Amino acid sequence: MARTYGNQSMVAPLKRVLLRKPTERAEDVTRWREFGYHFAPDVEETRRQHEGLVKLLGDAGVEVIVADEPQPTLLDSIFVTDPGFVTDAGAIVGHMGKRLRRGEEAALAREFERLGIPILGALAGDETLEGGDVLWLNPETLVIGRTYRTNDAGYQRVRNLLADTVKNIHQVHMAHWHGRDEILHLLSVISPVADDLALVYAPLVPVPLFELLEAHGIRTIEVPDSEFATHAPNALAIAPGHVITMAGNPITTERLREAGVTVWQYEGRELTLNRDGGATCMTCCLLRDY
Predict the structure, then answer these.
(1) Parallel, antiparallel or unpaired: strands 242-246 and 262-266
(2) 191: which of 109, 216, 230, 255 lies 20 to 30 Å off by Cα?
(3) Residue 3: count of CB within 10 angstroms of its CB
(4) Which domains, from first to last, does the chain contain?
């Protein structure tokens, strides 16, 4: 019987992915300042750009599942990678460090159950973990960022849940950057794009992570300072050397292409620039082929 879930890679061919449809209405997005957005969202344009990303994934041969459970008051719920993640042993449901996002976890758990993906465990209490802090270097090596959104208790719970199935689990501490209210997930500064290649914003990559990359023979492509704020480090690999990024970062795009990486792009002024979340944030990868 063919596998329907299993994801301990960030670059192996992506076969099945979950996205969450933006379901807010014009009256809901009046809270945009509370969520830390940069300008008042355009609801219809947000939907159009999200549909464009869905189509791009489908055109690339990925089976796209779109969750449409209404969550109009949870404006960040389109970033479906954060409430949990899928492993070969089942799904782990996180516990959001951003309190405005509490409630997304239960909705994601319902999606996992609907799709027949067993839940290995769910974080609770003082444990916090968001999927933006979860990085697979390979199926045996997991790196978790210690951030304002993912704490030590969350890291330890994941270690315990995966102790029998993942050989190497590391924690790396991220910078304070601009504080608690500005998102700096681990995946804000690094995206693997092939087995031996990663896109990085070097000034914010922790030294232990650079050392892990070197130990695993992973080369880096550096994002320039001018394109960090426009989310250039956020690239979703759909296969080794094939990535989806937001349009509008020409220097990084050229560096990727010079390294032999094929780049597909989506429009992201509403999805990414306004809400600070890229292609990896909007996709919960359910199945990769490795």
Answers:
(1) parallel
(2) 109
(3) 12
(4) 14-288 (3.75.10.10)
Give me the phi and psi of 22, to 5 degrees please: -70, 125
Q: Is the distance from CB of 86 to CB of 284 less than 8 angstroms? A: yes
90-99: b or e for each residue (b if 16 or more CB lie within 10 Å)?
bbbbbbbbbe
Task: Please list, in sequence order, all residues whose beta carbon lies within 8 angstroms of the beta carbon of residue 152, skipping any fewer than 6 positions away.
Answer: 146, 171
Residue 175 CA from chain centroid, whole number: 18
pTM given for the model: 0.96
The bridge status of strand 236-239 relative to strand 219-222 is: unpaired
Strand order in the sheet with 236-239: 236-239, 242-246, 262-266
Give tens-digit pLDDT for 150-187: 999 999 999 999 999 999 999 999 999 988 888 799 99
Residue 1's pLDDT is 75
Per-residue pLDDT at 149: 97
* Nearest one of 144, 142, 132 to 97, comparing CA atoms: 132
Q: Rounded to whole angstroms, what are the CA distances from 39 to 29, 33, 36, 276, 283?
A: 10, 8, 9, 11, 23
Question: Hey, what are 154's tokens?
Answer: 């969350």
Find, among 243, 217, 247, the residue nearest to 230 by Cα.
247
Specify the pairing of strand 119-122 against strand 219-222.
unpaired
Q: Quote the CA–CA distance of 143 and 139 in Å, as a whole number.
A: 11
Amino acid at 43: V
Q: Which helix (H) or strand (E) holds 261?
A: none
Instruction: Say how many residues make up the chain.
Output: 290
Q: And the tokens for 162?
A: 């995966």
Residue type, 131: G
